[in-house]
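Hello Y.,

Per our agreement to keep a running log of every chain we model this quarter, I'm adding this entry. I've kept the format consistent with earlier entries: sequence first, then predicted structure.
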Amino acid sequence: MVSAAGSTGTSQSLERGLAILSSYASDRPLIGVSELSRELDLSRSTAHRYVATLAKLGYLQQDPDSKRYRLGPKVLDLGFSAINSMDVREISAPHLRQLSDETGYTVNLAILDGTDVVYIERCWSARPGQREIDLNLHVGARLPAYCTAMGKAILAFVPDERLEEIIARIDFAPRGPNTLTDPMAFREELRKIRRLGVAVNDEELAYGLRSIAAPIRSHSGEVLAALNLAVHRTMVSIDELIARYGPVVAQSAHDISLGMGHRDAPS
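Predicted structure for the entry above:
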């Protein structure tokens, strides 16, 4: 059977199937057919046909109690396949482990996706108090970029035109005691990060959480990811975080960038 196609040569069936999968989020794990039909402007029978197909292929699973659907294991397989194919993750892994071992703190790696950062690698620390700031994060977890050190470390080096498009889409809602909610103040923060080369999150995402991050560059010089070191406010003051851990975080990011083929411009 040939899928319906639009004038651009795209597959309408594929677009609808992906739209259904994209409707799911961590705070919305179960969705019913009726909800999907309303939200995607599909008839109930059409929505049910797509859902049934996705379930048969393993991309959706039906909850036996509610009869609603959740994402299936095939989606997880695709996600991990994509993550595992990223050179930056493979190259970064030993550097993240070394940084975590040397400092005793959890170290993370993330990429930018829209207005969010997506965690693609984590090195946990068993240090007392570290669990309090883990926020149940895992590989594949998403957080708003504007209130995270890694998000700011990447956004600071996004070209101006694209940056303005991203800022226009950000909902600058308060997340922690010190969240930057003013777009102008946020732009100034990014300018500061460009000068210093590191970004700090001082309880902007959540109470008690501090982190420091540095950008990772590809062979072309484009910032494609960032790594951070996360601490609890009772462990390290913000001044110590910057002075003591800023240089080692920046060095680790630089070493990974070298592994990606990036070379510093001649001085």
